[in-house]
Amino acid sequence: MRKPIYSAMAALSLSMTTAAGAQIEQASEAPYAFTADYFVGEWVDGDSCDVDRLVMRADGTLIAPTGGRSTWSLDGNRLTFGTGEGASSFTVQPINRDLVYLFLDNGNMGYSRRC
Asked: Where in the sequence is the domain holding 73, given as residue range(s)?
C-alpha cells in the first residue's frame, strides 16, 4: 500500500511502501555518501522514468511532478522538503548512483530512482 510522504504544500507525488510490500533490489556496490550533490537530479517513485519527475536542483529548490515548487535540504541523513510547519522530513540511505531508500519515522519505507 502506498502512502504520500510530502506535504500538500510541496504537492509532490513520491510515495512510500511498507517494508513488507517493497521490492527493493540489494545494493550492488558500497552505499553512496550522504551529500546534497547526490540528490541533485530527476527522481521518480518506482521504476518507470516514463512518468513526471521530481526535479531537485543544486540551489536547494525543487519542482514537483505536478509543477509545484518548494525547497529541499539535507542534514546528515535527514532529507527535508519545504520549510516551517509544512515541511516533511525522512531518513535517506543512498544505495547506488540511481537508487535511494527512504524511511519514515512511522516505520514505512520506500525508494526512489534517478532518471
From this structure: 3-114
Rounded to two decimals, the pTM is 0.73
Task: Indicate the length of the chain as a whole number.
Answer: 115
Mean pLDDT of 40-64: 95
Residue 22 pLDDT class (50, 70, 90 cuts):
very low
Strands 54-56 and 109-114 come out as unpaired
C-alpha distance from residue 33 to each of 18, 92, 93 (Å):
25, 11, 9
CA distance 115 to 98: 8
What CATH number is attached to the domain comprising 85? 2.40.128
What are the Cα distances from residue 97, in Å, to 5, 8, 26, 112? 22, 28, 13, 11
